[in-house]
Specification:
Helices cover 55% and strands 3% of the residues. With 352 residues, it is mainly alpha-helical.
């Protein structure tokens, strides 16, 4: 794997996939390109062969629903307590408190997208919408659809919308522009899927939107517009230039060539359902965040020796000031022909 990828051998008879891969690599040479399948499926099987005891950690975490309910209630209590607070107190709490809690709720949505909060798909969907409420912006239903494809087709050009666009890489290349990129991450995470891999909305998107509108109107009716802005702006702060948002960069941005997923072992895992254990998560997406540290404990030979992080703030700083790191610092691959991608899109994706 390397920047620009490896040149595809010139042959008289070249497959459609090879032709498309070569064309995409030539058109976007500044990304890292891998010409094999995503690494986690194979590694999962290797780890299970050596550590079959990990199977007992697979399954739901029954405490997730209580954590979600507690923090949603805490946000509502915050609205009440901060009524009439000076603007500087409001702004400070909006960044620190609302930003952190609402980002935590995005990671609750992440956990629930894997059906790890309750038995059955439908309860997890409704729990995800509950976690989505204090964010003020509908996201849970669409996030699940795109996130499942991120796991199954990690790095796949067009399909994995977690990867920045060519335009992002071209424009946000300097330190000031990368600061702006970090601030605007909520915008890119929202609009990038619509530009790259749009999907027809399903009934769950409409349910999600209806619940958020009803919740937002209730907030305005009971407390006022200022309190709704506290939630919405808190969401934008928390997903922008914020310590917890460091996981957006830490998870898959290539800061050590040859590796495309990175884990973080630091205290902010306590607020984020252990999403920092990201190699462990991609290896075992059916193990809840609560048990991901056990994966590393049982199979340390697979995780301790590879590059990982202990500070998301340091990750953000390095990303911004290092000229060798940019939105281009992601690994892409082409393992699907365009017609296969079109067929997947026509079905509505992996999940509807």
């Amino acid at each position: 794997m390397g920047k620009g990828g490896c040149a595809v051998a010139k042959q008289d008879m070249v497959s459609v996939l090879e032709k498309e891969r070569e064309e995409k690599v030539q058109n976007q040479p500044k990304f890292y390109w891998a010409h094999d399948e995503e690494p986690h499926r194979r590694r999962k099987q290797e780890i299970l062969n050596e550590h079959p005891s990990l199977k007992k950690y697979m399954g739901i975490d029954t405490s997730t629903k209580f954590k979600v309910a507690f923090w949603v209630a805490f946000q509502l209590l915050s609205l009440h307590v901060l009524q009439g607070a000076p603007w500087y107190t409001w702004l400070f709490c909006c960044y620190t408190l609302s930003g952190s809690i609402n980002h935590m709720m995005t990671l609750a949505m992440h956990e629930l997208s894997h059906n790890l909060g309750a038995k059955g798909v439908t309860p997890n969907r409704f729990l995800a919408i509950l976690a989505n409420l204090p964010m003020g912006i509908p996201a849970a239903a669409s996030f699940k659809r795109y996130h499942m494809e991120h796991h199954k087709f990690q790095g796949e050009d067009v399909v994995d919308v977690d990867i920045p666009t060519e335009w992002e890489g071209w424009f946000f290349h300097s330190t000031p522009r990368k600061v702006l990129w970090c601030l605007l991450q909520p915008v890119f995470y929202s609009l990038r899927p619509l530009a790259i891999n749009p999907k027809e909305p399903t009934r769950w998107e409409f349910i999600n939107i209806a619940c958020i509108i009803a919740f937002d109107l209730s907030i305005v009716y009971v407390w006022g517009v200022r309190e709704l802005l506290y939630l919405v702006i808190g969401t934008l702060f928390g997903m922008g230039l914020h310590p917890v948002a460091g996981h957006f960069i830490a998870e898959h941005y290539v800061m050590h060539e040859g590796q495309e997923t990175f884990s973080y072992y630091g205290p902010l895992n306590w607020l984020t359902f252990n999403v920092g254990y990201h190699n462990e998560h991609h290896d075992f997406a059916n193990i809840s965040g609560k048990n991901l540290p056990d994966v590393r404990r049982i199979a340390p030979e697979y995780y301790d020796a590879i590059p990982h992080y202990h500070s998301w703030i340091k990750v953000i700083y390095d990303y911004i000031v290092d000229d060798g790191i940019s939105p281009y610092s992601r690994t892409k691959r082409v393992t699907m022909e365009t017609k296969e991608i079109d067929a997947l899109r026509a079905r509505g994706g992996l999940v509807k």
